[in-house]
Amino acid sequence: MKKDTIDELFKELNFDNKEPGSGHKARFLEKLEEETSQTKNFGGRPHKKSLWAPMLSVAAILAIAFMIFAGFLNENSGRNSGELASVSPEMKETQQFYIQLIKTELATLETENTPGTEAIVKDALIQLEKLETEYEKLKKDLQNSGKDKRVIYAMISNFQQRIDLLNEVLEQIENIKTLKKQNDENYI
């Protein structure tokens, strides 16, 4: 068998066998002109997918979660019978402490929300809603049980779980930032 080189194999083949259709150049120039006019309309940048829609949806979710969270933590003297604050002055201080701490952590989480951490933040908000639902059930149990210590402990534990969740999410966000920074430094 004879060994053929690549040049010999392709020597006989003619790849330039088709001409572009009539008006090809005009169509190409028309599309090119259309593309350049679009970039002028968008400040000299090509039109890219807008990041505002996802950011606004995350901001809306955070705002709704914050309003719901603030709404159920609002101290109304007429509705205090199911609240932890109705048990004793010490429990009222405890409830206020946890509420303030959770609000602070939520505000920090909101500032750390970026497109790279959007999924983690969304998941954290879903988990907070679940804990909030559980807390509402505990409030009803507190009313029905006559201020049972186990229910009080469960309510305090619920607050602590929320704080732990927020701290864990903020820690994960910091890890993501660190990894991104290291990757960017290595890439450069």
UniProtKB/TrEMBL annotation:
UniProt keyword terms in alphabetical order: Coiled coil, Membrane, Transmembrane, Transmembrane helix
Coiled-coil residues: 121-186
Parts of the chain that traverse the membrane: 51-73
Protein name (database record): DUF4179 domain-containing protein
